[in-house]
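Encode chain A's predicted structure.
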Amino acid sequence: MATIFSKFLTEMDVTRSLVIPTNFMGLIDFEKGRVMDMHVHDDAGGLWMFRCSVQQNGIVGDVLCVDWIEFVQHRNVKVEDKVIFVMEDEAMGGRMKIEVKRKIRLFGQDIWADVK
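Encoded structure for chain A:
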Protein backbone atom coordinates (compact mmCIF):
# COMPACT_ATOMS: atom_id res chain seq x y z
CA MET A 1 0.00 0.00 0.00
CA ALA A 2 1.20 3.50 -0.81
CA THR A 3 0.18 6.46 1.35
CA ILE A 4 -1.37 9.19 -0.79
CA PHE A 5 -2.09 11.69 1.95
CA SER A 6 -2.34 11.96 5.73
CA LYS A 7 -3.44 14.79 7.98
CA PHE A 8 -4.23 15.61 11.60
CA LEU A 9 -7.81 16.83 11.50
CA THR A 10 -8.94 20.35 12.33
CA GLU A 11 -12.30 21.68 13.47
CA MET A 12 -13.13 22.65 9.86
CA ASP A 13 -12.26 19.15 8.63
CA VAL A 14 -14.75 17.47 10.97
CA THR A 15 -17.56 20.05 10.83
CA ARG A 16 -17.55 21.30 7.21
CA SER A 17 -15.31 19.43 4.77
CA LEU A 18 -11.91 17.82 4.64
CA VAL A 19 -9.46 20.28 3.08
CA ILE A 20 -6.45 18.83 1.26
CA PRO A 21 -3.83 20.90 -0.62
CA THR A 22 -3.97 19.65 -4.22
CA ASN A 23 -0.20 19.20 -4.43
CA PHE A 24 -0.60 16.20 -2.08
CA MET A 25 -3.04 14.45 -4.41
CA GLY A 26 -0.56 13.64 -7.17
CA LEU A 27 -2.08 10.25 -7.98
CA ILE A 28 -5.49 11.75 -8.64
CA ASP A 29 -6.22 14.15 -11.49
CA PHE A 30 -8.46 17.03 -10.42
CA GLU A 31 -9.54 19.99 -12.47
CA LYS A 32 -10.23 23.38 -10.87
CA GLY A 33 -13.96 24.11 -10.66
CA ARG A 34 -14.91 20.53 -11.45
CA VAL A 35 -16.91 18.35 -9.06
CA MET A 36 -16.16 14.65 -8.89
CA ASP A 37 -16.87 11.66 -6.68
CA MET A 38 -14.07 9.88 -4.84
CA HIS A 39 -14.80 6.25 -3.97
CA VAL A 40 -12.92 4.92 -0.95
CA HIS A 41 -13.07 1.74 1.08
CA ASP A 42 -12.83 1.69 4.85
CA ASP A 43 -11.15 -0.99 6.95
CA ALA A 44 -14.53 -2.69 7.54
CA GLY A 45 -14.94 -3.25 3.80
CA GLY A 46 -17.51 -0.48 3.39
CA LEU A 47 -17.54 1.68 0.28
CA TRP A 48 -17.91 5.44 0.72
CA MET A 49 -18.49 8.09 -1.91
CA PHE A 50 -17.09 11.55 -1.13
CA ARG A 51 -18.11 14.49 -3.33
CA CYS A 52 -14.99 16.58 -4.07
CA SER A 53 -14.21 19.91 -5.67
CA VAL A 54 -11.10 22.03 -6.16
CA GLN A 55 -11.36 25.51 -4.68
CA GLN A 56 -8.99 28.46 -4.32
CA ASN A 57 -7.54 29.14 -0.87
CA GLY A 58 -5.67 32.43 -0.46
CA ILE A 59 -3.10 30.94 1.92
CA VAL A 60 -2.17 27.56 0.42
CA GLY A 61 -3.45 27.87 -3.15
CA ASP A 62 -5.79 25.32 -4.69
CA VAL A 63 -7.32 22.85 -2.23
CA LEU A 64 -9.43 19.76 -2.63
CA CYS A 65 -12.60 20.06 -0.53
CA VAL A 66 -13.98 16.64 0.37
CA ASP A 67 -17.59 16.29 1.52
CA TRP A 68 -17.23 13.46 4.01
CA ILE A 69 -19.44 14.58 6.92
CA GLU A 70 -21.60 11.44 6.77
CA PHE A 71 -18.44 9.35 7.22
CA VAL A 72 -17.25 11.63 10.06
CA GLN A 73 -20.53 11.23 11.92
CA HIS A 74 -20.78 7.49 11.28
CA ARG A 75 -17.22 6.85 12.52
CA ASN A 76 -17.29 9.48 15.30
CA VAL A 77 -14.20 11.18 13.85
CA LYS A 78 -12.82 13.98 16.05
CA VAL A 79 -10.44 16.93 15.88
CA GLU A 80 -6.79 15.77 16.16
CA ASP A 81 -7.58 12.30 14.78
CA LYS A 82 -5.35 11.36 11.87
CA VAL A 83 -6.84 10.51 8.47
CA ILE A 84 -4.78 8.50 6.02
CA PHE A 85 -5.62 7.82 2.37
CA VAL A 86 -3.74 4.88 0.87
CA MET A 87 -3.76 3.19 -2.50
CA GLU A 88 -3.89 -0.57 -2.19
CA ASP A 89 -1.66 -2.58 -4.47
CA GLU A 90 -2.85 -3.98 -7.78
CA ALA A 91 -3.47 -7.39 -6.22
CA MET A 92 -6.19 -5.69 -4.15
CA GLY A 93 -7.68 -4.06 -7.25
CA GLY A 94 -5.78 -0.78 -6.94
CA ARG A 95 -8.54 0.79 -4.86
CA MET A 96 -8.28 3.75 -2.51
CA LYS A 97 -8.67 3.11 1.20
CA ILE A 98 -9.29 5.47 4.12
CA GLU A 99 -7.99 4.91 7.64
CA VAL A 100 -8.66 7.00 10.74
CA LYS A 101 -6.39 6.79 13.79
CA ARG A 102 -6.80 8.28 17.26
CA LYS A 103 -4.04 8.80 19.80
CA ILE A 104 -4.82 7.13 23.11
CA ARG A 105 -2.75 6.73 26.23
CA LEU A 106 -2.36 3.14 27.38
CA PHE A 107 -0.15 2.12 30.29
CA GLY A 108 1.69 5.44 30.09
CA GLN A 109 2.37 5.13 26.35
CA ASP A 110 0.81 7.02 23.46
CA ILE A 111 -0.44 4.68 20.75
CA TRP A 112 -2.44 5.26 17.56
CA ALA A 113 -5.58 3.10 17.48
CA ASP A 114 -7.97 2.58 14.57
CA VAL A 115 -11.22 4.53 14.85
CA LYS A 116 -14.04 2.10 14.09
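The chain has a mean pLDDT of 85.
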